[in-house]
Amino acid sequence: MKKGYIFIALSALFFSTMEIAIKLAASDFNPLQLNLLRFLIGSAVLSPLAIRHLRGSGFSLNKSSVLYFLFSGFMCVVVSMTFFQMAIVYSKASIVAILFSCNAVFLIPFAHFFLKEKLTKLSLLSLVISLAGMMFIVNPENLTNVTGIVLSLLAAVTFALYGIIGRKGSLKFGYDGVVQSSFSFLAGGTELLVLILITRISAVAHWLQSIGLGTFSNVPILQGISWSTLPSLIYLGVFVTGLGFSFYFLAMEETSAATASLVFFIKPALAPVLALFILGEAITANVLSGILLILAGSCIAFFSDNRESRLAAARKSSVQTSRIQTR
């Protein structure tokens, strides 16, 4: 159990520095290029852990599972993380970190509608409080950065949808989080590479530039990689994406899924503090109020998850006991 909390602390630290590291590397790399490189590196780091999990499982790829990984990878790497990368370009790293952490909030209604999971009073309370926290951060009365906030929220919503796809895949194919993430990152990175190669076609590049999407035209692949930029790229790919997810899944193994989710409760509190010291991004009264509300909502969600897990375990134990007595 002690080892599990060490994994949680390491994962939270790496995830909390993600937006800061991307912000620092943004001037050296195209957003799509950085997205591609970090997820391909992250997939390579995760693969040994995924292979270990697959040993003796009788795992085999078929048309259905390949399509699943292509879809989940597309939603995560191509859609959600592209919104995420662009959000960091247009907004403060601390704001993106806080709003993106709310993907767990969006997961609550999605899980109810797509997975038919029970919507409890506590989960609804968590949703309302977290949304109130988001409103404090967005501050509609003084909304000056619409683009960055919209992109951050789109990243959070689509990442929550990726989470739903992951759960469905887990139920259908029996993959755990390590395998699902490793293969999805590889599939998504491959899809993004294909799209990047398409942007390098002259006619496509001219069209993208003509409609004001020059950032997405002629996207480089290896350009910008040098001895000076290599440390930030390695940190993002190996530590944040690869080890961050690895420690998160190892924490699940040592503790539980609910306990490991503490990572995403620590992130909205830790990331703004780190952004303050590293990037000099001030924490305003509104943002501080929003952080406290989101943390309160997250704690309620954590308590609700633990409570439902205990009730489910108690019901399962009761059924097993009654079967034994019947025999």
Automatic annotation (TrEMBL):
GO terms for cellular component: membrane. Residues 3-138, 147-302 form the EamA domain. Its main location: membrane. InterPro entries: EamA_dom (IPR000620), EmrE-like (IPR037185). It is a multi-pass membrane protein. The chain crosses the membrane at residues 35-54, 66-88, 94-115, 122-140, 146-165, 185-208, 228-250, 257-279, 285-303. Keywords: Membrane, Transmembrane, Transmembrane helix. It is found in: Endomembrane system. PANTHER family: ACYL-MALONYL CONDENSING ENZYME-RELATED. Belongs to the EamA transporter family. This is Membrane protein.
